[in-house]
Design goal:
Lipocalin; single chain; about 50% strand; mainly beta; eight-stranded antiparallel beta sheet; globular; 2 domains
Length: about 200
């Protein structure tokens, strides 16, 4: 009997995450990561599809009156993790305990695009999500673009939308007011940026 108890104890302690039948963290549905998230000092507009996540980030910086304002194209690096990597700048987005966390890699301060040096990160509750609006394509076709590093022009991607297509979308006021962050949900979903004057967005 002692041998049986000891063996069972060793098995319990020594089992791996997978072999014990524990469930791996599940990635949130792409729809759950598509929307406008925020609180009084932060606005995070996001659209996710496949391995791509495009976001517009606006936040008061370091509890001051200065404001961060940028757009980024992040690539999936795991079920709960996306990353923007450009030169010495590594920005991560992860989902943890019902929050979206945007931070420098390894917790170190970073020269975040659009924010300056010593940016320490930000976080927002997923439950703060408001859905994107609906936009209808007016032009015969639009080739969506993707955000590039600061001061660079958006780069044309390979995804086309056509007149009459309906997209999830959000007009981006302020510095990016000529663009709409969109997500095409039909067939194989994709995300990108479209010219605001080529869309009719409900409520705008």
């Amino acid at each position: 009997m002692r041998f049986f108890v000891a063996t069972a104890f060793v098995c319990l302690v020594g089992c791996t995450y997978r072999s014990c039948g524990a469930r791996e963290p599940q990635a949130p549905d792409e729809e759950a990561l598509t929307g406008i998230f925020g609180h009084e000092t932060l606005s995070l507009t996001m659209a996710a599809a496949g391995d791509d996540l495009v976001l517009r980030y606006r936040s008061l910086y370091a509890r001051s009156t200065a404001q961060c304002d940028c757009m980024l194209h992040l690539k999936r690096e795991g079920p709960l993790r996306w990353a923007f990597r450009e030169g010495e700048v590594d920005v991560l987005l992860r989902v943890e305990d019902g929050e979206i966390v945007l931070e420098p890699e390894d917790g170190r301060t970073s020269s975040f695009p659009g924010c300056g040096a010593d940016w320490e990160g930000d976080r927002v509750l997923m439950e703060s999500r408001a859905p994107l609006g609906i936009c209808t394509v007016l032009s015969s076709e639009i080739l969506l673009s993707l955000p590039q590093p600061p001061l660079a022009e958006p780069e044309l991607g390979s995804n086309l939308v056509y007149r009459g297509d309906q997209l999830q979308g959000s007009v981006l006021p302020g510095a990016f007011d000529k663009l709409v962050l969109v997500r095409f949900a039909g067939g194989e979903p994709f995300v990108g940026l479209a010219p605001a004057n080529e869309l009719d967005c409900a409520g705008d």
